[in-house]
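Q: What residues go here?
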């Protein structure tokens, strides 16, 4: 017992916590609501927290089927008995991508006898971490106690400062902030904090239909709608064939799986090539872009009505391209009485790219081919409604009904199955020859966290968003097997490569 503080010798629980920091205790997180939820009326806040509670259970149950979510009205807690590094990492990854959470912290919950008991528990956790560090203690307290929050901060901070000689109290910009919450007779010790998405939980703000092209703008616009608590469905106007659709499906699937996994959404694909051809043949060059946007908005409005959705989302930003002037947008919007949301309307392009990087879609958007549909030599920036309508009279409007009727409406969860059906020309193997080469097409973050090896076979790490552009640099006499964790990306990319004429590629799916 030598070297152990006197007070700890008579408290076995604290003694074990000090000597056995790796003891497998319950994994717990405290979830803080986005401030805009906290200021709502009691009934609205109750509804919002109920939605968030349900979403947390749905998503985190995939990490731990027995996860416990507790709703405390002004915050929620997550508890799991599976306290392993892998589970902790997956929990944190999921929690950072669930709308409605502004911050969350890993915590330990315990009883306490008095203020000195709280100090001893904090010391047991933080003593080793405080060596040669500046620190401060922050306490939030609820209930009736014999001490105030400031008194608790001073007592605990002073005790830590005395116990750890190399540590220094520093109230502004310290190396460490020790956060405690005292709620009635419970101590919540917050060991590490993380930023969440913020916003509102899904689907607190109804449904929207987002026009997605696979580029920066539509991806970021979709993300911002998800963050606002809008269940976001996707509408894709196909101008580039199967390869184009495969890439856009990847983008939509990524956004859904990463940020709105708690709810089913639709992915709708409309073959717009017949309408584009009609526009190219019939209308004046200068108004082609405006008319194409009007036709897309007409189609989007009809698809939204068919799905019972009351608003459409676009990635348009003022002045970014010629069709996105105030005059042109006003003419475009005249084709529908429905609400058109433009979350990027004032954003600069660099702002949009920065958000794309932050949410993990920059590389995929960068690699997406441009399919402009129509390119005017001298596009108008000041469209006149009467001129536009006169040109539209030349079009075969029955084509619009035809392409909408032929639209493919998919449950985004079945993209895995759909990709498998469309990849019938792509061989899928669970066993490989000795001379096989595996292409690990996962993102760099995934490969870094979990490097893939397979019986000594060569593995080339080539992220899916670079595969189309860099596959041609590989040895054409070698056969390659695409690998990803779920098999969705690998099948879509294999289809894309086959579309480009590369037949020396298959899909590798290890036996689970």
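A:
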């Amino acid at each position: 017992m030598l070297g152990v503080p006197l007070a700890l010798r008579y408290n076995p629980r604290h003694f074990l916590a000090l000597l056995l920091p790796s003891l497998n205790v319950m994994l717990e997180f405290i979830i803080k609501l986005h401030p805009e939820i906290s200021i709502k009326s009691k009934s609205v806040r109750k509804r919002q927290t109920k939605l968030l509670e349900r979403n947390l259970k749905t998503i985190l149950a995939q990490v731990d089927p027995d996860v416990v979510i507790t709703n405390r009205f002004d915050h929620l807690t997550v508890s799991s008995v599976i306290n392993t590094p892998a589970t902790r990492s997956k929990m944190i990854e999921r929690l950072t991508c669930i709308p409605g959470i502004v911050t969350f912290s890993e915590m330990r919950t315990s009883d306490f006898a008095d203020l000195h008991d709280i100090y001893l528990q904090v010391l047991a956790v933080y003593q080793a971490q405080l060596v040669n560090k500046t620190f401060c203690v922050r306490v939030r307290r609820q209930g009736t106690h014999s001490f105030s929050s400031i008194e608790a901060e001073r007592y605990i901070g002073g005790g830590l400062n005395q116990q750890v000689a190399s540590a220094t109290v520093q109230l502004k910009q310290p190396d460490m902030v020790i956060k405690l919450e005292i709620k009635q007779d419970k101590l919540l010790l917050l060991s590490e904090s993380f930023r969440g998405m913020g916003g509102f939980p899904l689907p607190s703000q109804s449904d929207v239909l987002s026009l997605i092209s696979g580029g920066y703008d539509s991806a970021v616009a979709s993300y911002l709608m998800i963050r606002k608590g809008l269940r976001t469905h996707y509408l894709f106007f196909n101008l580039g064939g199967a390869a184009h659709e495969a890439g856009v499906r990847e983008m939509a699937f990524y956004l859904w799986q990463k940020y709105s996994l708690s709810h089913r959404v639709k992915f709708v694909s409309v073959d717009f090539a017949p309408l584009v051809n009609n526009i190219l043949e019939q209308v004046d060059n200068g108004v082609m872009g405006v008319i194409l946007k009007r036709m897309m908005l007409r189609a989007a409005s009809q698809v939204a009505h068919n799905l019972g959705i009351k608003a459409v989302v676009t990635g348009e930003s003022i002045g970014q391209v010629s069709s996105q002037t105030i005059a042109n947008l006003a003419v475009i919007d005249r084709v529908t009485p429905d609400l058109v949301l433009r979350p990027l309307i004032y954003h600069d392009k660099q702002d949009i790219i920065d958000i794309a990087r932050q949410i993990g879609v920059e590389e995929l958007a960068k690699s997406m081919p441009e399919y402009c549909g129509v390119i005017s030599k001298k596009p108008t920036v000041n469209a006149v409604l009467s001129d536009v309508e006169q040109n539209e009279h030349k079009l075969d409007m029955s084509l619009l009904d035809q392409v909408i009727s032929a639209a493919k409406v998919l449950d985004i969860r079945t993209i895995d199955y759909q990709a498998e059906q469309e990849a019938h020309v792509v061989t899928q193997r669970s066993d490989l020859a000795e001379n096989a080469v595996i292409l690990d097409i996962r993102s760099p973050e995934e490969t870094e966290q979990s490097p893939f090896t397979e019986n000594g076979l060569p593995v080339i790490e080539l992220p899916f968003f670079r595969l189309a552009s860099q596959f041609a640099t590989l040895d054409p006499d070698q056969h390659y097997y695409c690998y990803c964790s779920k098999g969705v990306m690998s099948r879509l990319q294999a289809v894309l490569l086959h579309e480009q004429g590369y037949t020396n590629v298959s899909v590798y799916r290890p036996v689970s």
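A: Context that may help when evaluating the design: The radius of gyration is 28 Å. Residues 288-307 form the longest helix (20 residues).
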